[in-house]
Amino acid sequence: MPAVEIYDTTLRDGSQAEGINFSVQDKIQIAQKLDELGVHYIEGGWPGSNPKDAAFFQEVKKISFRKAKISAFGSTRKANIQVEEDKNIRSLVEAETPVVTIFGKSWTLHVREALKTTLDENLRMIEDSVSFLVKQGREVVYDAEHFFDGFKDNPEYALKTLQVAHEAGAQILVLCDTNGGTLPLEMEVIINRMKEFFGGDEGIKWGIHAHNDSGVAVANSLIAVHLGAQQVQGTINGYGERCGNANLCTIIPNLKLKMNVHPITDEEMRKLRETSYFVSEIANLRPNDYDPYVGRSAFTHKGGIHVSAISRYPATYEHASPESVGNERRILVSEQAGRSNLTYRARELGIELDPKDPRLLTLIQKIKEAENYGYQFEAADASFELMLREALGESAEFFDLEGFRVIVEKRGEEDTVAEATIKVKVNERMIHTAAEGDGPVHALDNALRKALEEMYPLLKEIRLSDYKVRVLNEKEGTAARIRVLIQSTDGRDSWGTVGVSADIIEASWQALTDSIKYGLWRREKKA
What we know:
With 527 residues, this protein is of the alpha/beta class. It is built from 18 helices and 16 strands.
């Protein structure tokens, strides 16, 4: 099997995903991260289409990349003009990248209906554009747009477009499943026909560019490599137009761990999850917890039997090592939990427990009852740890609630104003205070902080970073139970807490007080 290059198009194809809008600086940062990951090519954008991409190519010239080559992307010349006069072609040259990726039409439908030209003129457009860029000293990647759909419609013409690009000097021909509708079995048949046309594997250098509209972009990419593809194009996290592109975060480890193809080093692959999360953060999109390899849940175990087995031999329920992609194993505590789950989680927290400890059975029963009521501790690690330590006799009670009252006032068209009055006991000292907020939970948070900050100045460093509400038994209407999840941070670490009640304020109070108690306990422990 030949060596395989990774060609990343996150900055161009990925940016076409709904909800993504990279700035020039965003694209620079992502390009540098991709270079650290070890990709061979980074497609920066289309310099002839918008000022932002033109600015990116000016800025990226100032950066020395360790491994990656930057490519500018564009189309063949327009119909019936000289290639030297085409503005798009000129902008590709002016981008001054070592690589230019140019796409041409493979499907007769697009030639006639999109370009409004003849089949022969389209062939001349491909030939002129590729040969001109080669003469300018560029490495040319030819993307055969809609190749698979074009082949199904008119195989002779689709193959002819590849032949013209190859003879004009393109260093690699990339077969694009632009609409994402080709299935793996079709892919194999069409690729083998293409290879026969060029006389086998030695005839050309070729690659694959798959879209995920049928959910098989990764599978199609892997089949292409199995059949001899020497370049795989895709994006980080599979970002892309419509249903996305082939996900490089899945393709790369599959190549290395399953197919013995090594496009990047082991050390580089350990940066994969970090890269995935970095790009999602820049894109301002929540990471997909269920993504293979890099997702938060990819190596997460919940059932007690599973946990018992992986504690002894991880391969029993893990097809790969989480460390190989920079991920980590997680053990959840839930109503399915057994002693193995709890002892494993306790060990992660620095607590060694005897599996025969009778307190474990009590804790397991308490967790099951809580989850039956609506609690979930999978995203509430801090609430679980507080419960565990309480069961073991380790108190984290920094204050006791004597009572609170919340008033919400609405006057005409003005915004509502909430006021919380709170009474807490701290070290036998009674503190009674009040505060306003944008809503009842915000007012309670402000009042509690006002009451505690004199005694616990570290509380000033703790803030809420996320607040989620879910209705559990919706059929009960306004009497339904509510689950509140709160994410908190002190600027260094973050933790989650949970509360459940038929009263949203009570549920919020539970999660809020757990958050503050846990934050204070952590800082006290580190002091």
